[in-house]
Amino acid sequence: MSLTHLPTGGALRRRAVIGTAALGMTGAASVVAVLSGGSAAAGTTTPASRIVNRETVQVEASSTGSIQHARLFNQLTVYGDGTYRVVDPTATKGLRNLDGFAKPQIENGRAIWSVTADGRADRRTVADVPAAKLPVTLRATYTLDGQPIAPSELVGKTGTVTATYHVANRTATPTTIRYKDGHGRLHTETVDLVTPFVGQLQTDLPSSFTSIHTARGDLAGDGRGGTAAAFTLVLFGPIGSPAQTFGWTAHVKDAALPPATLQVLPVTPERHPELETGETGYADGAATGTQLTDGAGQIDSHLLELQAGAAKLLTGLTQLSTGAQQLKAGLAGRAVPGARQLSGGIDQINSGAAQLRDGVGAKLGDAGRLAAGAGKVAAGAGQLSAGANELATGTGRLAGGAHQVAGGAGLLYAGLQNVSGGLSALGDAKAGLPAAVAGAQALRVGVDAILAGLGAPNQDQTVLGGLAQVSGGLTRLNDVTTGLPAAKAGISRIQDGLTSSTADAGSAITGLKGGISGAQQLIAGAQQALAATPNPTADALLTQAAGALGQVDAGLTQFATTLQDNVAQAAGGLQQVSSGIGDAIAGVDTLGAGVARITAGVTQVKLGLASGSAAEPGLAEGLDALVAGLTRAVTGVGALSDGVDGQVLPGMAQLASGASDLAAGSDEAATGAGALAAGAHQVADGAHQVADGTAQSAAGLEDLHGHLGDLATGTGQEKAGLHQLSSGLDTAATGSGKLASGLQQAADGGRQIVSGSGRLHRQGTAKLVTAGNDTARTYARQYAIMKALDAKGARGGLPYGAPAGGTGSAAFVYTLAAATNATSEGMTRGGVALVLAIAGAVGSGFVLRRRMIRA
Predict the structure, then answer these.
(1) Under a CB-based contact definition with an 8 Å cutoff, are residues 131 and 70 in contact?
(2) What crossing angle do the helices spanning 377-427 and 619-643 adopt, rounded to 10°?
(3) Which of 16, 281, 338, 781 could tie 411 with a disulfide, CB 3.0–4.6 Å?
(4) How far apart are CA 137 and CA 469, in angstroms?
C-alpha cells in the first residue's frame, strides 16, 4: 500500500500538535491530595486513586548541536472522583496552559493545581527548559575530505563528507554499592552512577549521498531513493557507555546536510529482556567465580597439606640418612678394623700355642731320659734351664697376644653397640623409617583429598561438577526451543506480524478514505440540489460537514504516513535486537569453549595426581610405591637389629670375657715359666731334688702338653669364627653404605616434593584462587551496578524529579537542524521540528518505539 505525507501547517498549529504528542508520553510523578467537600481550603485530605505525570522535553539545536530552544510538555492525569490539590515539580519559565488561559499557581518551582475529576481529569502545560536541566548532550562535527568544516561552509560542496556525533549522559551522581567477592567478603564502594538511558539517533541521507559507510549504524532505504541511517545507544555501563562517538561517511555532490533526531528514554534494565540478559549474566558470572574460588581454595589447602606432609617425610628421611651414615662410619671405621685386629691377635695366639705345644712335646723325651740316668742330670738341668727360658719367652708372647685379643674384642663390642644404636634409630617410630612411612601415608591421604575436591562431572560441590553445571547452563541458554535461538525466532514472528498489521491498517485506511470521498460527493450533490431552493442554514451545515470530512481525510493521510515511518523504525529496531541475540549466541558458544578448556585442564591435573597406570604413574602411585619400599625397609632394619642385639652382641661379650681370662692365664703362665727357669738353675745345685722332681716334671710336662694342645685347638676355632665375623662386618659396612646412599636419594626426592608442591602452590593454585576471586568480584560489582541502575531507572529520569505519590517517566527528543541552500538553518530547523512533532502526535509511534526497546 502507498502512503503519502501531509503538508505542514503554521507555527501555531505546530505547537499545538507538539503539545498533543508530548502529553501522550509517560513522565514524572506528582504529589496529590483530595479535598473533601470540593474546596481546596477545607476538609480532610486523602490521596487520589492514581496519579500519572507524563513529560516530554523537545530540544531544537543547530547543525552542530548548539541548543536554540528546549521546551517541557507536561500532562498530569488524575484518576478518582472529587477535587484534588496537585503539587507538580516542573519548569516555570514561560509556563502556559495548553487547555485554556488559566495558569496554575506557581510556588517554589512547583505548579499547584486544583483538579476536579470525575473518573479522570487532565492538565497540560508547556514551559521553557534551561540547557542545564538536560540529561544528555549532543554535539556534531563535520569534515570535508578530511578537513574540519562548518555546516554553513559545507553547503554546495562536493567531496567525501564525514559527520561525527558525540552523545554523553551527564546524570552521574555518587552512589554506594555493595557486593561480595569469591571469599564471601563484603565490599562497599562509591561509584558515579548515571540514569540508565537508551536512545536512537536517526537521519535520512538523500540520494545525492553515495558510498555511505558507518562503523556501527544500521542503513536502510527510505523509499524515496535515499538512505535511512539509525544508531542505537545504550548510554550506561557496564552494558554500554555513558559517552559515545559515532557517525557516517559518504561521498556528496552539491552537499546539503540533512536533519538528525536523537530520542532518549530512561529504562529499568531488569524489565527489558535484552538488558536483563546481561544483568543475569553478571549474576551467573559472580556465582561461577565464587564456585571457582571455593574449588581452587580447596585444592590449594590440600596442596599445602601435601607440602607439610612432604616436609615431615623429608625430616624423617634426613634423620634416616644421618643414622645410616653413622652406621656406615661405625661399621667401616671401627667395627671392621677391630675385627681385623682381633683376627690377627688370634692368629698370633694360635701360632704361639702350637709352638709351645711342640716344644713341650719335645721335652717329654728329655724327662724320660732323666729317669734313666742321674749322670745326665747336669746336662738335663742345662737343657731344662734353656727350655724354661724358651717357655718364659713363649708364655710372654702368649700373654701379649691374649691382651691384644682382649683389646680387639672390646673394640669390636663397642662397634657393635654403635651398630645396634644406629639400627634402633632407624626403627624409631617417631623419627625413623616408621615416621617416614607415616609421612608418606599422610601425603597419600592429602592426594586423595585433592582428588575428591576435583571430583567428577556428575558430582555436585566439586570442581568438575561445577564446570559441568556451567556447561549445562550454557547448553540450555543456546537451546533452540527455549533459549536464545527461540527468542530470535520470536522476534522474526513479531516482524512478520508488523508487516501484516501494516498491510491491514493500510487497507482499512484506504477503505475509510474511499468512504469519505463518497460522503463528500453526496454532500456536493446535496449542495447542488439546494441551489434551486436556497436554504442558508442547511447549506452552512453541509459546508461544515464537507470541511470536517476534509480534515478527517487529511488526518487519515497523516496517520498513514506516521504509521509507515514508525513501523519502519520498529522493524529496524527489531532487526538490531535480533542481531544482538545472534551476537549473544556466539558469545555463549565462546564461553562454552572456554569452560571446556578449563574442564580439560582440571582433568589433566587430576591425571597427574592419580593416573591409574603403572607405566605412567602419577603422584598417588608414586606415594604408594614409596610407602611399600619404606615398609620393607622397616622390616629389614628390624631383622638386622634383632640379629645384632640377640646374637652378635652376646657372642662378642663372651668373646671379650674369654679373651680377658686368656690374658690373665697367660700372665700366670709367664710367671710360672719365670719361676721354672729359676728352678732349673737351682737343679744344677742339687741332684737329689732333680731326681725326685724329674718324675713330677715329666708328669707336669705331660699335662702342660695337653693344655697347650687344647689352647692351640681353641684358638684355631676362634680364628675361623673371627675371620667369618670380619668378613660379615665387611659385608655389613658395604650394605650400610648402599643404605646411606639410597636414603640420601630418597631425601633429595623429598626435597623435590616439598619444592614442587610449594611452587605449584605459588604459581598454580594460589593464582587460580586469586583469578577466581577476581572474576567473582568483578562480576558481582557489575551486577551490583546493574541493580543500582534498576533502582535509578525506576524513578523515570525526570528532569525536575518527582515527589512521592505518583508514577511517571520522561522522554527527550533532540533535533539537529539541516543546512541547505534553499532555506536558512533556523527555518529548516522549525520545519524539521514540525515534521517530528506531527510524527509523534499520533502517539502510537512513540509507544511502538518504547515497546521495541522493551522487546
Answers:
(1) yes
(2) 150
(3) 338
(4) 45
Residue 817 three-state SS = coil
Nearest to 260, CA basis, from 835, 850, 847: 835
* DSSP bridge pairs for 168: 137, 243
* Beta carbons of 306 and 383 less than 8 angstroms apart: no
Burial environment of residue 143 by CB neighbours within 10 A (0 to 12, 13 to 18, 19 or more) = middle
- 190, β-bridge pairs: 176
Q: Which of 131, 108, 113, 128 is nearest to 53 (CA)?
A: 113
Q: What is the pLDDT of residues 324-376, one digit of tens each?
A: 787 778 767 766 786 677 667 767 767 776 776 787 677 666 656 655 654 66
CA 599, CA 466: separation in Å to the nearest integer?
Answer: 10
C-alpha cell at 563: 504509521
* pLDDT tens track for 413-457: 776 677 677 667 767 777 667 877 777 788 778 878 888 888 888
Identity at 580, one-letter amino acid code: G
Residue 737 burial (10 A CB sphere; 0-12, 13-18, 19+): middle
User: Which DSSP string corresponds to 128-184?
Assistant: E--GGG-SEEEEEEEEETTEE--HHHHTT--EEEEEEEEEEE---EEEEEEEE-TT-
- For 582, the grid coordinates are 545472534
Q: Which three cell numbers stand for residue 327?
A: 652406621
Q: Report, in this order, helix, strand and coil percent for the chain, each rounded to 5.
A: 65, 20, 20
Beta strands in 3-109 (DSSP E): 31-35, 45-46, 50-61, 67-89, 96-97, 105-107
Position 153 scores a pLDDT of: 94
Alpha helices in 610-648 (DSSP H): 619-643
Most distant CA pair in the chain, distance: 215
How many beta carbons lie within 10 A of that of residue 188, not counting itself?
9
In terms of Cβ atoms closer than 10 Å to its own Cβ (0-12, 13-18, 19+), residue 652 is buried
Residue carrying C-alpha cell 616434593: 753
pLDDT above 90 covers a percentage of the chain that reads 22
Which of 655, 642, 643, 662 lies closest to 412, judged by CA? 655
Evaluate the CA torsion angle 411, 415, 418, 423 in order and state its sign: negative
Q: Which three cell numbers stand for residue 553?
A: 481525510
Cβ count near 721 (within 10 Å): 13
Task: From 755, 656, 698, 22, select the one nearest 369 (Cα to Cα).
Answer: 698
Rounded to 5°, the CA angle 89-46-44 comes to: 110
Helices and strands: H and E segment counts in the chain: 15, 19
Q: Is the peptide bond before 206 cis (omega within 30 degrees of 0)?
A: no
